[in-house]
Design brief:
The complex is a heterodimer of chains A (about 950) and B (about 575). Chain A has 28 helices and 36 strands. In chain A, the strands form 8 sheets. In chain A, strands 27, 28, 29, 30, 31, 32, 33, 34, 35 and 36 form a 10-stranded mixed sheet that branches. A 7-stranded mixed sheet of chain A has the order 8-7-19-18-17-9-10, with helices on one face. Chain A has a 4-stranded antiparallel sheet with strand order 3-4-5-6. In chain A, helix 4 crosses helix 20, helix 6 runs parallel beside helix 15 and helix 21 crosses helix 23. In chain B, the strands form 6 sheets. In chain B, strands 10-3-12-11 form a 4-stranded mixed sheet. Classes of the chains: A alpha/beta (about 950), B alpha+beta (about 575). Chains A and B meet through helix 1, helix 2, strand 1, strand 2 and strand 6 of A and helix 2, strand 2, helix 3, strand 5 and helix 6 of B.
Chain lengths: ~950, ~575
């Protein structure tokens, strides 16, 4: 703590270019493009000296150790650099990580606010076990050992008694690639449950039916036209990395087209903002496609080579010759009904605007980047056709895996193979994969309470992890009913860094680390390249750099906060302490057999053996691969992956080949080993068990796509043969909130939109974010407000099928008249003092035979805590929990919950207060039953006596034997 | 002398200390800039740097050359590129993190305004913060030099000598300064000068996902900042304030740049946050339904600001008027021949009342400081362009005159009263009137830059002084009642004329207009009209005598409160 001369300071710590380069160190240029560095030179990350901002202009020097990790808020997984104060060994701040190829040193508001999450005075620091009734809010601190032993014993009993399906792990934000799925595989349970069907599975299905890969990877930076049915300048998948690249393209002259019912921050930057009537997005896509088709503006050669038009002709027009020239007129015929006038009538967007947008799309060539995620695909019945029709535009222009085009994500993602690869489980869990949904890409997670209510099964051990279904999912009161029923859920374990509404109904709450307190490895498609990022407990790394040995993150984390990797290893070991169940071997060290696998060995092995180029790069710096990742937090494996589908299959693989009538090439060769185990579809072998290796196009055997045909499936043979022939082509399905489906009093409610500064259930523990955004008023156009005689901030009652909520109104020109919208980020609540006092209202719950009421006892207020800032909390509002009043709307094909609601809005009634909620769960179950009637059961439609097409992607895929349809079903 | 022209600013304080801290002279130390003397090196932006990231960054279409600034004092400027800004608030939280800014205050935030009618609607963002003025009103107004300008043009602050008078806040036309509730000292965006000084970009620049914020040397025409400023249509906020900001907005909308262009939504809600209006909070946007924007514009996110000067300052103007008038009025009566030099009113009531109310004034002034214990710094490290300093010395000098005057009374030295009147007259007037200059130094508060203000304060001191003495006169000197009542009535008449003029003349700016609207019809209209009514009673003083005095005094106090607060009720950010 001394004041030194500036010259001395410059010599020692300056990050300015001249000094840095004179020292032979790395200069990280910043946006100012001057001599200022954006980050300290990496050579100084062990001992970086900065001036204390609070004491300035007094020059108090602070010494930091800089340790990279990864943000754990949204899915983007941006790099962070923890500044660890060398005096206190605590994190002083988080900045971006310049070595991270996806986020490139930049962050959104949530990156720096990670510090709030770590220092949150309300966080859970010790394992807790409930003492009163479940949900009563009485907890006692317990030892980790006690919790582990009880869990292990129960799980072991379930496994040995062949009750595998009673063990379930329900995850929200995974934040990692496959670690926990493999844990479940080692236990032999089909117990993976996700949040995907309340999130992105609608969009995924649309992409998957085309490509066999369930996510797009748009190359925005190089695009000429960017067409978004999403709000990627403000929301995840992948907000910050994509926002950077979208704005880069815009600065280079790209045109931005955005479809969003409400004015998002993305829409505000659009050259064309289209605010369609919700659910009509696919009609707009098809009108643009029709424009390209009718005017011969599409890439004929690409369509001829890569679409499976032959299968279409063979299936739908067997009388016709299988020639492209025959297909083209049919294509014109198929889409001719989708005129601009048709789309305008459906969407409310003017014909002229649609024509303008179509003309712009037509100019893009192969530089059209498109993206749909959540948004319309997650809002509407048939929403999966939104992404399917959007991909149609890319597929028409040949803008697939081209610079500025859209890639299948698996080509821009790298999932390193881990030390052990357990086999697929032999069980099939019908609580997550029911027969009614043979084509769903993800678990029917949000129907769980209804399945339990129907007696389809029960749970003995139910983990929720970074997931809050009571709050996040629709119909939360039905979740509370299930979770409080000990016969349905034997033991509920909430793995969470912070309080949440679901954890209140747990038996154990086990505190897990935030982004800087845990290990994970992950990779996301954010440009045409492949990288891995390493999330790591930064205080452990810091202490190890100082020469200490930290075997367990509990030694360095606050309280007894642990990391999940080590928790799962320990739990699995205790389930099978003697190795008899065959589980323990996956948790043994390879280096010293018989001892427990350490987290260091797990990642050390992965980085040494499964990441091409990393060992060489590390060794050039005199580091081991693990040391390299600990130091830099990320590694880019490749760049410019390009058109994988156009790659020729190597002759080595072409042994014992056979070819289908449509050119699908099968071979007996063994699949070459790959250390990238990125999830994608697995096309089925032919009848002789030969695996699909490629597709013959114009005489060459090319890699193609992981679809049954090896081509882009314009015509989905899967949809056609599994009972949905009418939807086998990219088409338009009228939404459940289509005007024709609404009564005159009803209007659509858009309930899914994100804010750039919050992230679902995960950021309520970040005071800086809460201070900026803490309310979710109902957006309403002035025309509607006048109709209802409602003024700004007035209370309204919004009635759904099963109940109502009372909320304030935000009157805005930023929404289509006749539609209301309410962000889902708000409305957090607690029943007792336990919870996030910065962002949760205290409420009373009342339940009379499934008629639930919620009344707000108090909003947020200032309070004393270890953080002086909590005394300065000035906001009182936390918004309204609208999701409670939504019934489930499972799309019969994708299984996606269709979020949009048909609601009636009226002035609040006497006695209504802000935040009031009422719901009848009996009605909720009736709505569930109505939607189930839309499904087509595998027992009725399966063409091959299996539960589900084997080739489709599925998290934690069971062994093929488990796919057989059950023989009898009542 | 225009106190806002920094080149006319004194270079050192009373003690010979340099006003701009020499230890921060970057050129002298040469810490940041290239070691090649006199040479400006242009190297490609794609010059060597780390690993895979390099390849990614080169994808930026606007890769500019990196300049190493010449070895001369730079002139730091900043561009806020609103054509890129996506309103994500990364800068807001990065700044909170870097500078450990508590909840309830911000150095920077992103205001947003919805513009237009559906479906032709846009959301306009404005990254809102200190404008790093070349002629910084906060620096001119700071009594101790805590808010100061460095040689490189940065307006920085030294919390160790901030007395918490909030003059800088009142002076800032952008409402960019606040008192930190943790350390009670003024602060604001300083371009992260602690980072610039070691060669690092400011925290907001680094974090921004879309590179919408960047800094540079405006003297270096090759710098990215200078290129944008010189070649692109950039704007500064409130150029009419002659502050010459060095923060330039690229592509900003008038609806955000002008704080009253947008309509303030009714009720208590913004798009995703509460609107903390009421109390001493000042929210952007116009409170009435009309606005200055070319388009329909609705404020959708804003951070509440606080009016810097509360009731204590309203009250201080009143007590000080009494303190000043209590001496001057009897002196005027003597000169007019109404009372004599040895009148008790003049020899006793005047100094005692004057000193008493000066003491109250002093207590109020000190109580208004967030660092009351540092009050003495006004005298020990005065920054002479500050009217707080000038006023402090004026009040002290006037208190000295009153004390000697009282002493003369005690020792019976009548001649001293006459001699003391020579400095006493101007000092009492200046003690009353300097506040007009103090208020006018609040460059952001348009209503206070009024030529009426000095004479008005003079009128108010005669009103206040005569009223107080009128109350005392019956007990002390019956003969003084009538002349005092006449002075009071005249003062009231003058005051009402001034108020009439203030309220009804066309105002020079929209801000002045809005302030007057807030005073006469808005948030402070109750105080205003009660004030007018009660003061008017003072006209009857020649008829009802001392009874009119307390009523008129109460009216004056109500008026002062309305006047002081209304001027601060206009949003500036």
């Amino acid at each position: 703590m001394t004041e030194r001369s500036l010259d001395d300071l410059a010599r020692r710590v300056s990050a300015a270019r001249a000094e840095v380069e004179a020292r032979g160190e790395t200069f990280y240029p910043g946006p100012s493009r001057i001599n200022l560095a954006a980050f300290p030179p990496k050579e100084r990350w062990d001992n970086w000296v900065e001036l204390d901002s609070r004491s300035f202009p007094k020059r108090i020097e602070k010494r930091y150790m800089l340790v990279p990790t990864t943000c754990f808020n949204c899915e983007s997984a941006c790099g962070l650099l923890a500044y660890i104060d060398k005096e206190t060994l605590q994190v002083r701040k988080f900045e971006g990580n310049p070595e991270h190829p996806g986020s490139r040193g930049r962050n959104c508001a949530k990156g720096p606010a990670t510090l709030n999450q770590v220092t949150d005075p309300d966080r859970i620091l010790y394992p807790l076990r409930r003492t009163g009734a479940r949900g009563e809010g009485k907890w006692v601190k317990v030892d980790w050992d006690e919790a582990l032993d009880e869990l292990a014993a129960r799980i072991r009993k379930a496994i040995t008694e062949d009750r595998h399906n009673e063990v379930m792990y329900h995850v929200g934000r995974p934040g990692e690639d496959g670690f926990t799925e493999r844990v479940l595989a080692t236990w032999g349970v089909d117990g993976h449950n996700s949040h995907t069907n309340v999130c992105s599975s609608g969009a995924r299905a649309g992409y998957h039916f085309w490509t066999g890969i369930d996510r797009p990877s748009p190359d925005h930076a190089n695009a000429k036209v960017i067409y978004l049915i999403s709000s990627h300048l403000e929301a995840g998948h992948y907000f910050n990395p994509h926002a950077q690249r979208v704005m880069e393209a815009k600065q280079a002259g790209a045109k931005l087209i955005v479809l969003d019912v409400r004015l998002s921050n993305t829409a505000t930057h659009a050259d064309h903002w289209l605010s369609p009537y919700p659910g009509s997005e696919a009609a707009i896509n098809l009108a643009i496609a029709n424009h390209l088709i009718q005017n011969d503006l599409y890439d004929r050669e690409f369509v001829r080579r890569w679409w499976n038009w032959k299968e279409y002709l063979a299936s739908e027009h067997p009388e016709l010759e299988e020639r492209f020239e025959v297909f083209e007129p049919l294509l014109k015929e198929l889409y001719k009904e989708f005129t601009f006038e048709f789309a305008a009538a459906e969407s409310g967007v003017e014909v002229e605007t649609l024509a303008d947008v179509a003309a712009i799309v037509a100019t893009a060539g192969t530089r059209l980047s498109t993206h749909n995620w959540r948004s319309a695909a997650a809002g509407n019945l048939g929403g999966w056709q939104v992404s399917r029709t959007l991909f149609l535009l890319s597929a028409l222009l040949g803008a697939i895996a081209t610079p500025g085009g859209t890639y299948p994500n698996a080509w821009n993602k790298f999932v390193p193979k881990p030390i052990y690869s357990p086999p697929h489980p032999l069980t099939w869990n019908e609580l997550t994969w029911p027969l009614e949904y043979p084509l769903a890409l993800n678990e029917l997670s949000f129907l769980l309470p209804h399945f339990l209510r129907e007696g389809r099964g029960k749970l003995d051990v139910y983990f929720t992890r970074a997931h809050n279904p009571v709050w996040t999912n629709p119909d939360g009161f039905s979740w509370i009913e299930s979770l409080t029923d000990l016969d349905k859920v034997g033991l509920h374990v909430a793995l969470t860094p912070t309080w949440n509404e679901t954890a209140y109904f747990a038996d154990y709450i086990l505190p897990m680390g935030h982004s800087s307190e845990r290990h994970d490895v992950h990779s996301y498609e954010q440009y045409d390249g492949q990288w891995i990022g390493f999330r790591q407990p930064v205080l452990k790394v810091a202490r190890e750099r100082l020469g200490e040995s930290v075997a367990d993150t509990r030694e360095v984390n606050p309280g007894e906060v642990w990391e999940e990797n080590q928790f799962w290893i320990e739990l699995s070991w205790r389930i099978d302490p003697d190795g008899v169940l065959g589980i323990r071997r996956y948790y043994e060290s390879e280096k010293s057999p018989g001892t427990k696998l350490s987290v260091d060995e797990y990642y050390g092995w992965m980085f040494e053996n499964s990441v091409p180029g990393l060992p060489e790069k590390a060794s050039a710096e005199g580091l081991s691969p693990l040391e390299y990742m600990r130091r830099y937090g990320a590694f880019e494996i490749s760049k410019g992956v390009g058109r994988v589908h156009e790659q020729q299959v190597s002759p080595d693989e072409l042994t014992g080949t056979a070819e289908s009538r449509f050119g699908r090439v099968f071979a007996t060769s063994v699949k070459p080993p790959s250390c990238n185990v990125v999830p994608q579809a697995t096309p089925e072998p032919d009848q002789f068990g030969r695996r699909a290796v490629g597709v013959r196009i114009d005489g060459e055997v090319l890699r193609g796509f992981p679809t049954p045909s090896g081509r882009l499936e314009f015509f989905s043979t899967t949809l056609a043969s599994w009972g949905w022939r009418e939807h086998a082509l990219p088409g338009y399905i009228r939404s459940h909130i289509h005007p024709a489906a609404l009564s005159p009093q009803q209007m659509p409610l858009i309930s899914t939109f994100r804010l750039p500064i919050q992230i679902h259930t995960r950021s309520a523990n970040a005071k800086w974010l809460d201070e900026i955004a803490h309310s979710n008023p109902l957006w309403m156009h002035p025309v509607d407000a006048a109709r209802f005689e409602i003024g700004s901030s007035d209370l309204v009652r919004v009635s759904t099928e099963i109940g109502h909520f009372v909320v304030k109104v935000w009157i805005t020109e930023g929404i289509r008249p006749g539609v209301v919208a309410c962000s889902h980020h708000m409305g957090r609540w607690k029943l007792t003092d336990q919870g996030q006092r910065q962002m949760m209202a205290t409420v009373d719950l009342d339940n009379t035979d499934g008629r639930w009421g919620m009344k707000r006892r108090g909003g947020v207020e200032p309070y004393e805590s270890a953080d002086a800032d909590t005394k300065r909390i000035w906001w009182t509002d936390v918004g309204v929990h609208q999701n409670l009043t939504f019934s489930v709307h499972p799309d019969p094909i994708s299984g996606q919950h269709c979020w949009h609601q048909a609601v009636s809005v009226s002035k609040a009634e006497p006695g209504d207060s802000y935040g009031d909620i009422f719901v009848d769960t009996t009605k909720a179950h009736q709505v569930y039953l109505r939607w189930m009637e839309l499904t087509r059961n595998a027992l009725a439609v399966s063409p091959d006596q299996t539960r589900r097409p084997y080739w489709l992607m599925r998290p934690l895929k069971p062994a093929i034997e488990a796919f057989r349809l059950p023989k009898v079903r009542a | 002398m225009n106190p806002y022209l920094t080149h006319l600013r004194p270079k050192s304080d009373l003690y010979g200390r340099s006003w701009a801290k020499p230890r921060l002279n970057m050129a002298a130390c040469g810490i940041v800039w290239a070691s090649v003397p006199g040479e400006r090196s242009h190297e490609s932006f794609t010059a060597p740097w780390g690993g895979g990231v390099q390849a990614n960054r080169t994808g930026a279409p606007d890769s500019l050359e990196i300049t190493s600034a010449p070895k001369q004092t730079p002139k730091w400027g900043k561009v806020l590129d609103q054509t890129r800004c996506i309103g994500c608030h990364a800068c807001t939280t990065a700044c909170k993190s870097e500078n450990e800014v508590p909840l309830s205050v911000t150095r920077t935030y992103v205001k947003s305004v919805e513009v237009g009618y559906f479906p032709h609607t846009r959301r306009s963002f404005q990254v809102t913060r200190c404008n790093m003025c070349e002629s910084a009103p906060c620096v001119a107004a700071c009594p101790t030099g805590a808010m100061y300008q460095r040689d490189d043009g940065l307006v920085d602050f030294d919390k160790s000598i901030c007395i918490g008078c909030k003059a800088c806040i009142a002076a800032c036309p952008y409402d960019a300064i606040f008192i930190n509730p943790e350390d009670q000292s003024a602060e604001k965006c300083n371009f992260c000068s602690h980072r610039l000084d070691i060669g690092l970009e400011p925290a907001c620049v680094v974090v921004c996902p879309v590179e919408a914020i960047f800094v540079g040397d405006l003297n270096d025409s090759a710098s990215r900042v200078a290129k944008v400023v010189n070649r692109e249509p950039v704007t500064v906020r409130r150029p009419e304030k002659e502050t010459r900001p060095k923060v330039f907005y690229h592509g900003a909308h008038q609806a955000t740049l002008d704080p009253i262009a947008a309509r303030r939504p009714g009720g208590d809600s913004f798009m995703w946050s509460e609107q903390t209006a009421g109390g001493d909070h000042v929210v952007s946007g116009h409170p009435e339904s009309w606005n200055n924007s070319s388009a329909a514009a609705l404020l959708s996110y804003d951070v509440p600001h606080r009016a810097p000067w509360d009731w204590r300052v309203s009250l201080y103007t009143w007590t000080k008027a009494i303190a000043a008038g209590a001496y001057l009025v009897p002196l005027l009566l003597i000169l007019a021949g109404s009372i004599s030099w040895d009148s008790d009113i003049f020899t006793q009531a005047a100094p005692i009342t004057g000193l008493l109310f000066l003491a109250i004034t002093g207590v109020l002034l000190i109580a208004d400081l967030s660092h009351p214990g540092r009050f003495y710094m006004i005298f020990t490290r005065p920054q002479w362009s500050s009217w707080l300093v000038k006023g402090g010395f004026l009040i002290a000098a006037y208190a000295g005159v009153l004390t000697l005057h009282l002493l003369a009374t005690v020792v019976g030295l009548g001649i001293a009263h006459k001699m003391l009147a020579v400095p006493g007259v101007p000092l009492s007037i200046m003690a009353a009137v300097y506040t007009a200059y103090l208020f006018a130094q609040s460059k952001g508060r348009d209503m206070w830059q009024s030529a009426l203000l000095p004479p008005h304060m003079f009128v108010q001191m005669t009103l206040a002084g005569s009223a107080v003495l009128l109350l005392l006169a019956p007990a002390i000197e019956e003969a003084a009642v009538t002349p005092l009542a006449l002075v009071l009535a005249a003062g009231v008449l003058g005051h009402l004329l001034m108020v009439w003029g203030e309220a009804t003349l066309t105002h020079p700016t929209a801000h002045a207009h809005l302030a007057v609207w807030e005073m006469t019809r808005g948030r402070f209209s109750n105080f205003f009209w009660v004030g007018v009514a009660l003061v008017t009673v003072g006209l009857t003083a020649p008829l009802i005598g001392p009874l009119a005095a307390p009523v008129a005094l109460a009216g004056l106090l109500a008026h002062e409160h309305a006047y002081v607060q209304a001027a601060q009720a206009v949003p500036l950010a």
